[in-house]
Amino acid sequence: MKAEKFIKKWEKVRQKGKKKYILKWSMIYCICFIICMFSSWLLGNDFNFRLYDCFVFIFYVIFFTYRFKVGMRGKKYNKLLKLLFDETN
């Protein structure tokens, strides 16, 4: 049951495109991180940072992390499809 749910969900991601998936989640995490940093700065933590540099660095870290995750989830998807196909035959 859990495998079938994963397969359906990952098929939707594949239809939309892997690049969109990676970019969407990279941007979401970057924005959340920057909001946390900015709110911390507003609350009185005195540290110097350049928002653009921080955004670029975090974006690339998260981008490559999700790129790796997409590869791993793709392998899981293919493995589950193969197992389900073998069970039906």
Total separate domains:
1
**Secondary-structure class:** mainly alpha
Strand content bin: under 5%
Whole-number mean pLDDT:
77
C-alpha Rg (nearest Å): 18 Å
Helix content: over 70%
Number of helices: 3
Write up what this structure looks like:
This protein has helices at residues 2-16, 18-42, 51-88. It is mainly α and 89 residues long. It has one domain (2-88). Helix 1 (2-16) packs across helix 3 (51-88). It is elongated, with a radius of gyration of 18 Å.
Question: What distinguishing features does this structure have?
Answer:
89 residues; mainly alpha; 88% helix
Mind sketching the topology for me?
Layout: H1 2-16, H2 18-42, H3 51-88
What's the short story on this structure?
It contains 3 helices and no strands. It is mainly α.
